[in-house]
Amino acid sequence: MGRQKTGDEFRASRRQVLRVGAAGLGALIAPAMIGVRRASAAAAPQETTIDRIKRTGVFNLGVRDADPPYGFLDNNKHVGFSTEIAERVHDRMENELKGTVKLNYVTVTSRTRIPLLLNGTIDMEAGATVITKDRVKVVDFSIPFFMTTSYLIVPADSPIKRVADLSGKRLGGPRGGLQEMLFTKKLQAQGTFRSPVRFIGFENPSEGFTALQGGSVDGYTNDGPLVYGLLKSTPDQSKWRVFDLGVDVSPQAFPIRQYSSSFATLINLTIVDLCEGGRWQELYQKYFVPAGLPKESDETLKFLVRMNSWSD
Q1: Which of residues 227, 244, 261 is at a domain's end?
Q2: SS3 for the chain, per residue?
Q3: Model-level pTM?
Q4: Distance of CA 123 to CAs 58, 86, 97, 141, 252, Å?
Q5: Rounded CA separation 88/271 (Å)
Q6: Which domain holds residue 51?
Q7: How many domains does the chain have?
């Protein structure tokens, strides 16, 4: 019988980020702060994201349709933690522009989100995207709206019990996501594995879990809430084991095109209002708790909410 990770263990696994304090977390999210850094390096394009939305009257929002609890379809309606925050961004946009803006949902995946943002198909992506050094070279980010770690789901009787046990194994994960780089490059370069991990990318978590159930991969990794969502979706949870690999703590934010500081400000103030007004906690209860996360958000997330509650 597999043992599901307890709420206390889940919280403890993420408290490590608090050890660095506010300064350390500030260093983690520094790439998200937009404006002066890039504006001083190059002239802004002729049409900003806000100007484009004004001209077209359409806000093209990249959403996930199979990544609960961040974004998924429920009776053909786009819902989810990230999706609802993005919808509040749309509301604020209409108020500030003093007019109606059409909200156009465009389905994206971990592989297509950045290309569709860069080619103008979407104006913002609402998913589970982690800020990385490579990504900030091509896109900008809002302030973080969530913190996550990489979790692994394996059969209950699997010999894989720690990250080093993945040596030479077939590991499923999001195609083009953080975990692919983490397990095939970073950890490999650090000498974590005796032999390389064979990473197999999937467009969405359900495809990866299906492959795990069929024996095509030895384990599936993704952001903690997504992995817990997979466990919650199976009728016999005792057949599976979920655990924190203990290799990363990452801020998640909304990617947007570069040189869009006015748009970033609009997004950031929306997140701040949600954190200050208690709506962030309500969305956590609505989406993350049913996915298997603790009813009480952990200390890391509480710190994130406090950090996002700005002074007037």
Answers
A1: 244
A2: CCCCCCHHHHHHHHHHHHHHHHHHHHHHHHHHCCCHHHHCCCCCCCCCHHHHHHHHCEEEEEECCEECCCEEEECCEEECHHHHHHHHHHHHHHHHHCCCCEEEEEECCCCCHHHHHHCCCCCEEECCCECCCCHHHCCEECCCCEEECEEEEEECCCCCCCHHHHCCCEEEEECCCHHHHHHHHHHHHCCCCCCCCEEEEECCHHHHHHHHHCCCCCEEEEEHHHHHHHHHHCCCHHHEEEEECCCCCEEECCEECCCCHHHHHHHHHHHHHHHHHCHHHHHHHHHCCCCCCCCCCCHHHHHHHHHCCCCC
A3: 0.79
A4: 10, 11, 16, 12, 17
A5: 9
A6: 19-147+251-307
A7: 2
Residues 231, 265 within the same domain: no
Residue with tokens 């208690």: 278
Q: Find how far residue 227's CA is from the centre of its chain.
A: 12
Distance separating alpha carbons of residues 24 and 12, to the nearest angstrom: 18
Distances (CA, A) of 278 to 135, 136, 270, 284: 30, 30, 12, 10
Q: What is the pLDDT of residues 54-80, one digit of tens each?
A: 999 999 999 999 999 999 999 999 999
Q: Is residue 9 domain-resident? A: no
> 253 - beta bridge partners?
none
Which pLDDT score, from 0 to 100, does residue 21 have?
A: 42
